[in-house]
Structures are given as C-alpha cells and as structure tokens.
Specification:
This protein is α+β, with helices and mostly antiparallel strands. The chain is built from eight helices and 14 strands. It binds 2-oxoglutaric acid and fe (ii) ion.
Length: 335
C-alpha cells in the first residue's frame, strides 16, 4: 500500500532486540521509504535533557546581535561551517530553479576531534573534515553541540541498520560505509517576518535533501514542514512531542535504484493574518556516508528488466556535485 501521509513509527521493538521486533520496525520503515520518503520516529533513545539543552543554547545564539553572529560566519563557500544570515541561501537553488532566498538563519558544524592523518587531512578529504567554528561567550554551546552530533551519529547508525533489514540486507551491511561519516549538524532559526516577503518566498523553498538521511527535531510553531506526496499534494509532517522526523535523501534514493524516494519538502510561512510571534527553530542532522564509500546499486535493487539507473559514485563526489549545482544557480550553498 502506498502511504499518502507521513507515518509515526515506534523504534522500541527494534531496540528491544528480538528478531520479530526488528522485522516489524523494518517493514514499517520500508513502506514509509517506498511511499513518501518520510517518517516520524518515537522511542529513539535520545535523552530529552540534551535536546532541551541544545534547543535553549541555540535560541541564545540566534538572539545575539548580528555583529556577534558574523564573527563565526561561514569561512568559505565550500565549507558548510558557522553562521549564515537570513536570505543568504535558497534550498530550491539545488533544483536549478530561480527562487527567492530562504527566510532563515543557520549555524552548522561537522565532525569534531578529527584525527590528524592522511585520510582526514589529505587532499582526498577536501573540505569534508573542515574545522568547526564556535561562538565565544556562550558557555556550554560547543559541548552541547558536539554531544548532539555524537548521539545523532549513533541514531543514524541504528537507522542505517534498520534500513539494511528493510532492504533485506545483513543488518550491519552499512556499518563500514558510515564509520567515518561526513555528516553535518545544522540549527535553523526562522524569524517571524511580517513584511518584505517576496512572492513565492518561504522559510525553506521546495527541495530534496542530498545525503543518506536527515533527522530533524522540529518545532510546534505555525509555519512548518510539508512534504509533497505521490498524489502531488502538500501534506503537513505531523508534529509529535518527543519525536524526530526522518527523511531519506538523494543519495539513498540512488543507492536503492529509486526503490526508495527522496521527496520534495518545504517549510511554509506562518499565516499572513497571524498576530502572534511564530518564530520557529529546528535542529537538523544531515547524515552522509564516508567520503570514499561507493554508492552503487544495492544487492536486490536491480534485475535484468530493471538494470541500475546510475553509475557508481563516491559519497564525497555525490555531495560535491550537489554543491557545484548550487553555486552555479545561486549565491549560496545550502545543506
Ligand atoms: O526546518 C525544518 O523542519 C526542515 C528544514 C529542511 O528541510 C532543510 O534544511 O533541509
Ligand atoms: Fe530538507
């Protein structure tokens, strides 16, 4: 059955470790990834205290004066680190569309405590392990962000094991392809702008994500995340207290030979007549396999009648090709 809405999936049976429990979760995830490319997970084992701490520190960061935030500006266009201001990027650029820039600010980090060796620092590593930049005078910010990056990496590894089971592969199939992952954690702040909005301008324009998966801790504020379903209708992603939104990106779609779909989504503005302050903040983890992991049609995803749709490509080159597209079409680089 093709789902037209985003399902809510309880991960508890997976974490309880029985093979029936794992099977049940894997089947539900397979159906979600085939139908709509999005799911909401509950019982994910991420401590609530940490999520709250990161959320509060993020509010504090975005509330700083602009000149303070500018001190941790993105170091260069190909390094997604540090701060980007409102309307400096447009996610729709990656779709080769002319669209007005997004109404959001962001702060991004990549892996920390990177070993000083050839794999991580050599030419082949490119900007994937670029150093992080940190705001001064925000006690606990760096620690909380690094801890969040770590727990998200573990949750993504668990999701990749569920993905493997869902695709009828050995549970640990992806483990050695993500053990040096080049993911990015990005906090997003969407101010509630009441005027100066251009026609068609949104909090985040319609786009697909690039990598293996995205894990989002959203906000209940009005003006939220929507997904375009198979019928071509925009549907709201349900807001579940203590839930995370998971969606697969273009790389996973390519890996599965289009069996799973990377779906268009967007973040809409609050209603025009709203008199309240509907500012919104989300915490977004973009998971991306090791830069040298080869993304080629997974076993079981092709047949004589349905040969591989894509040539093999490394995760690093795949990500780079998205960035190049974006710099050609817009002034910024998004996630
Ligand atoms: O803020 C959100 O809920 C999602 C944002 C998003 O889709 C993105 O940054 O790729
Ligand atoms: Fe996205």
């Amino acid at each position: 059955m093709i789902l037209q809405h985003v399902p809510i999936i309880d991960l508890q049976p997976y974490f309880s470790g029985t093979s029936e429990g794992k099977e049940k979760v894997a089947e539900a995830v397979d159906q979600a990834c085939r139908s709509i490319g999005f799911l909401v997970i509950v019982n994910h084992q991420i401590p609530r205290e940490l999520i709250e701490r990161v959320y509060v520190l993020t509010r504090r960061f975005f509330a700083l004066p602009l000149e303070e935030k500018r001190k941790v500006d993105r170091p260069s266009p190909d390094m997604v680190r540090g701060y980007s201001g409102v309307a400096e990027e447009g996610l729709s650029y990656s779709l080769e569309e002319e669209a007005p820039p997004d109404l959001k600010e962001s702060f991004s980090i990549g892996p920390s405590n990177v070993p000083d060796d050839e794999y991580h620092r050599g030419k082949a590593a490119g900007p994937h392990f670029a150093p992080n930049v940190w705001p001064e005078n925000l006690p606990g910010f760096k620690e909380a962000y690094e801890e969040y990056f770590q727990v998200m990496s573990e949750l993504a590894a668990a999701m990749m094991r569920i993905f493997a089971l869902a695709l009828k592969l050995p549970e640990h199939y992806f483990d050695d392809k993500i053990d040096e992952h080049i993911s990015m954690f990005r906090s997003l702040s969407y101010p509630h702008l009441k005027d100066g909005i251009q026609p068609g301008q949104m909090r985040a324009g319609a786009h697909t994500d690039y990598g293996s998966m995205t894990i989002v801790r959203p906000d209940s504020a009005r003006g939220g995340l929507q997904v375009c379903n198979r019928d071509g209708n925009w549907v709201d992603v349900p807001h579940v207290e203590d839930g995370f939104v998971v969606n697969i990106g273009d790389l996973m779609m390519q890996w599965t030979n289009d069996e799973w779909i990377s779906t268009l989504h967007r973040v809409i503005n609050p209603p025009e007549d709203s008199t309240s302050d509907d500012k919104r903040q989300s915490l977004v983890f973009f998971h991306q396999p090791n830069y040298d992991a080869v993304i080629e049609c997974l076993p079981g995803c092709s047949s004589a009648a349905n040969p591989p749709h894509y040539r093999p490509i490394t995760s690093g080159d795949h990500l780079h090709s998205k960035f190049v597209k974006q710099t050609t079409f817009g002034k910024g680089i998004a996630a």
